[in-house]
Amino acid sequence: MNLCSWNCRGLGATDSPKVPYIGSVVRSLGLDVLFLMETMLPVHIVSQKLSAFSFAGSCGVDALRMSGGLFLGWFHDVSLVPLLVSSNFVLCKYLKVVNEISYLLFVYGAPHVADRGLVWEEIFKILTEYPKVVLVGDFNQVEFLDDKIGGSPHISQRLQFMQWRLDQELQPIQFSGPPFTWTNGHHDNSVTF
């Protein structure tokens, strides 16, 4: 199964190159599932913008003002049934069980440090109730200094997240693509990737 998970940081601008870029990724990688975070739009608008992709199914969460927003779309070769949808995750049952993966949990971690532990606790509850889950997405938490370029060497809640991940026995899965797709938007010497 080919999945793409991308914190797109907004799909709102009409002249944005993001929708054509998504199209090229869908075609070139033969995607089965597309998960977008921080759409900053209502789900129905995202669905309209991506209507050319002919998803077999989709779901998501509307943005609150100019923050958040999730969109999950899947193509005909994949059978997903959304079970739980919130502002931080979408849990789906995977109907074509391969390699004993029964569920997919698409995660968008809390952008504010103070809220991250609450999201981790919710994920813990899901992992306890649903066996054989693959987590895909962005925890909004850096674990290692080489996971970023620039910024402070102090990474808030890094050790807590690492311990939580170990406690849950979560293993990183291999990905392909550019390792740094986010920037803090600064154009001076304080830029962080």
UniProtKB/TrEMBL annotation:
Lineage: superkingdom: Eukaryota
Matching InterPro entries: Endo/exonu/phosph_ase_sf
Name the UniProt record assigns to this protein: Endonuclease/exonuclease/phosphatase domain-containing protein
Lineage: Eukaryota, Viridiplantae, Streptophyta, Embryophyta, Tracheophyta
Organism: Spinacia oleracea (Spinach)
